[in-house]
């Protein structure tokens, strides 16, 4: 049995009746990383949020989303609570908006932890500190005292990843987690995701329009266009020989950029491995 | 042509935590030559956008000077028709109540150029759009189309240099590529020169002849793009290694 099973997921706008995602099905196994790629408006984020039933009220969904065999779509909000955060953890594009701006980051993190586990305060601080050190935040107590606006985008994303390490969710849903970052920070955060996979056995749904990042991190790739999954396959197969013209178009679109860079750098395959 | 001599810039810290001045640029020396495509790359907070605003003359340096053909760039008359800008946020770059026509006419009026239908159609054609866009409002355009309109507007005053500050960063990968090809085409057809500010090293390497690496308000290294693999400083080497291809 797969860890996460999505069957015939249909998402539409309750107001206008417009169908946004007509019929999506996919599975995710334990420890696997599934990337969802596609251009703006292809329904990537809608799909992610639908997994946790976090789309805004006007957006309706039907279909089956099952985690370890439990269909989440039938649960009440109260029953859903432990699944949001503890079992399924979401890392958003904009770290600045993911945190409560009115409180220090540490207060927010401790509250999240106290809701999802029965750790003592000192255990929480110790666990968080260790996790933050492991993602390259060398002074955890200083970071925890800061307000979100005092931290850089890269630091906030690392803090989110640290929280995920402590919570050890079954599934981490990362929605464009590196898009708002500059190239260097992006590289470092991607490396943290790669390390995260080795450290905790969480499965990852990684949404991105950056195919370079996807190639680095994903096992499976799901290509979306206008709400429809047009192709799905192993990362090597998608990048090596996609069958759908849209996938080929996506993969080839930045190929000129990539080959020019590799040529300039003397053919060495940088940041790959 | 465009010359920066010993330029420094600092800002006062903001908000209730503020007070201390933050040095954003330190004694920068650089030059941009006619027809050249210069890439300015660096991490967030390295000072590259501040440098961009000083190059445009929309901010004044604390010390040093920025000149165009020997005249200070902050002088509006010296600046006219020389350099134009395209920024990252295409949604806020065009007045939301203006049609594409009005947005294109605005700079034309300033430089006193012809603003007839033929001129506008030609401008749109240069950026791969057509006359049917003239009466559209910004919200009716996709990101790539809006950024093309911004580029058309930047081209309209026949500048010698176009400064692009993260102009392709918020576009989809394939649209980024289309805009880069458009810029390349303008360079080949009209001899347009660029100052291309970005954190996207691959895009800079694709478009530019020369690349300047900025770090903590200073120029770490400047290198011909063809010599990119031979950068000297450790920082530049590490930066290039971190490109996710």
Automatic annotation (TrEMBL), chain A:
Q: Keywords for this entry?
A: ATP-binding, Cell inner membrane, Cell membrane, Membrane, Nucleotide-binding, Translocase, Transport
Question: Which InterPro entries does UniProt cross-reference here?
Answer: AAA+_ATPase, ABC_Ni/Peptide_Import, ABC_transporter-like_ATP-bd, P-loop_NTPase
* Cellular localisation: Cell membrane
- Annotated ranges, domain ABC transporter: 4-251
User: Main localisation, per the record?
Assistant: membrane
Its domain of life reads Bacteria
A GO cellular-component term linked to this record: plasma membrane
* Topology of this chain in the membrane: Peripheral membrane protein
Which PANTHER family does UniProt cross-reference here? ATPASE AAA-TYPE CORE DOMAIN-CONTAINING PROTEIN, OLIGOPEPTIDE TRANSPORT ATP-BINDING PROTEIN APPD
> Which family does the record assign?
Belongs to the ABC transporter superfamily.
- Please report the name of this protein according to its UniProt entry: ABC transporter ATP-binding protein
Q: Output the lineage of the source organism.
A: Bacteria, Bacillati, Bacillota, Bacilli, Bacillales
Automatic annotation (TrEMBL), chain B:
InterPro entries named in the record: AAA+_ATPase (IPR003593), ABC_transp_ATP-bind (IPR050319), ABC_transporter-like_ATP-bd (IPR003439), ABC_transporter-like_CS (IPR017871), P-loop_NTPase (IPR027417)
Please provide, alphabetically and separated by semicolons, the GO molecular function terms listed in this UniProt record: ATP binding; ATP hydrolysis activity
- Using the record's annotation, list all stretches that form the ABC transporter domain: 2-241
- What Gene3D superfamilies does the record point to? P-loop containing nucleotide triphosphate hydrolases (3.40.50.300)
For this chain's UniProt record, which GO biological process terms are given?
transmembrane transport
Quick check: keyword Cell wall biogenesis/degradation in the entry?
A: no
User: SUPFAM superfamilies, from UniProt?
Assistant: P-loop containing nucleoside triphosphate hydrolases (SSF52540)
Q: Which UniProt keywords apply?
A: ATP-binding, Nucleotide-binding, Transport
**Protein family:** Belongs to the ABC transporter superfamily.
Name recorded for this polypeptide: ABC transporter ATP-binding protein
What is the species of this protein?
Paenibacillus agaridevorans
Q: What is the lineage of its organism?
A: Bacteria, Bacillati, Bacillota, Bacilli, Bacillales
């Amino acid at each position: 049995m797969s860890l996460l099973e999505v069957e015939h997921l249909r998402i539409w706008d309750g107001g206008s009746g417009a169908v946004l995602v007509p019929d999506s099905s996919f599975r995710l196994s334990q420890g696997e990383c599934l990337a969802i790629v596609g251009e703006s408006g292809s329904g990537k984020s809608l799909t992610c949020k639908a997994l946790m039933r976090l789309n805004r009220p006007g957006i309706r969904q039907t279909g089956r989303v099952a985690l370890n065999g439990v269909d989440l779509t039938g649960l009440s909000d109260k029953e859903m609570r432990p699944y949001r955060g503890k079992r399924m953890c979401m890392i958003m594009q904009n770290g600045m908006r993911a945190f409560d701006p009115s409180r220090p980051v540490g207060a927010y993190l401790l509250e999240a932890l106290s809701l999802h586990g029965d750790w003592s305060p000192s255990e929480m601080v110790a666990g968080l500190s260790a996790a933050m050190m492991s993602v390259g935040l060398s002074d955890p107590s200083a970071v925890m005292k800061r307000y979100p606006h005092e931290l850089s985008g890269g630091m906030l994303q690392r803090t989110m990843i640290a929280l995920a390490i402590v919570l050890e969710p079954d599934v981490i849903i990362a929605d464009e987690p590196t898009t708002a970052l500059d190239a260097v920070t992006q590289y470092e955060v991607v490396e943290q995701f790669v390390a995260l996979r080795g450290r905790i056995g969480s499965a990852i749904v990684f949404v991105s329009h950056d195919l370079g990042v996807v190639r680095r991190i994903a096992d499976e790739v799901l290509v979306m266009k206008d709400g429809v999954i047009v192709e799905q396959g192993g990362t090597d197969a998608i990048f090596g020989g996609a069958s759908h013209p849209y996938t080929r178009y996506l993969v080839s679109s930045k190929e000129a950029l990539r080959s020019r860079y590799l040529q300039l750098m003397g053919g060495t395959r940088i940041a790959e491995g | 042509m465009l010359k920066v001599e010993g330029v420094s810039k600092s800002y006062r810290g903001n908000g209730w935590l503020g007070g201390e001045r933050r040095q954003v640029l330190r004694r920068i020396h650089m030059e941009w030559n006619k027809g050249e495509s210069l890439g300015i790359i660096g991490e967030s907070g390295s000072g590259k956008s501040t440098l961009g605003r000083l190059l445009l003359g929309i901010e004044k340096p604390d010390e040093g000077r920025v000149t165009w053909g020997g005249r200070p760039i902050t002088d509006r008359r010296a600046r006219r028709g020389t350099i134009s800008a395209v920024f990252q946020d295409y949604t806020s770059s065009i007045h939301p109540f203006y049609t594409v026509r009005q947005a294109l006419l605005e700079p034309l009026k300033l430089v006193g150029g012809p603003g007839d239908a033929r001129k506008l159609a030609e401008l749109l054609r240069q950026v791969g759009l057509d006359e049917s866009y003239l009466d559209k409002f910004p919200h009716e355009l996709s990101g790539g189309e809006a950024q093309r309109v911004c580029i058309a507007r930047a081209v309209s005053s026949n500048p010698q240099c176009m400064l692009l500050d993260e102009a392709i960063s918020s576009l989809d990968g394939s649209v980024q590529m289309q805009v880069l090809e458009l810029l390349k085409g303008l360079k080949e057809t009209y001899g347009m020169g660029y100052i291309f500010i970005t954190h996207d090293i691959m895009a800079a390497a694709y478009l530019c002849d020369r690349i300047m690496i900025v770090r903590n308000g200073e120029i770490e290294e400047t290198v011909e793009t063809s010599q990119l693999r031979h950068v000297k400083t450790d920082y530049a080497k590490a930066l290039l290694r971190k490109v996710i291809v």
